[in-house]
Specification:
The protein has one domain (about 1-75). The protein contains three helices and four strands. It is globular and about 30 Å long. With about 80 residues, the protein is α+β, with helices and mostly antiparallel strands. Strands 1-2-3-4 form a four-stranded antiparallel sheet. The protein has helices at about 1-5, 15-25, 30-40; strands at about 45-50, 55-60, 60-65, 70-75.
């Protein structure tokens, strides 16, 4: 999963993705991409790649990131 860490600065989302992440995680006035970056960099995070996506569990969140474009697809509370 070093590839994800090496490309953490390339992590981004679409405007609709930003709204979806904010809604799903209950975020208000913060940047969801920075929140997701911090969750991914958490030493307790578990990362696995299945097909074209990375699936990250960190804290009480499950995050899906496209492995090729590093686009945050969605995040959910678990």
């Amino acid at each position: 999963m070093n590839i994800l860490f090496e490309n953490i600065t390339r992590l981004h989302t679409t405007p609709l993705g930003e709204m979806r992440i904010k809604r799903n995680l209950g975020l208000n006035d913060c940047d969801p991409v920075n929140v997701i970056k911090n969750l991914i960099m958490n030493p307790d995070a578990t990362i696995e790649r299945i097909g074209k996506n990375y699936y990250i569990r960190s804290g009480h969140c499950r995050i899906t990131v496209n492995a090729r474009s590093f686009t945050i697809i969605t995040a959910h509370k678990i």
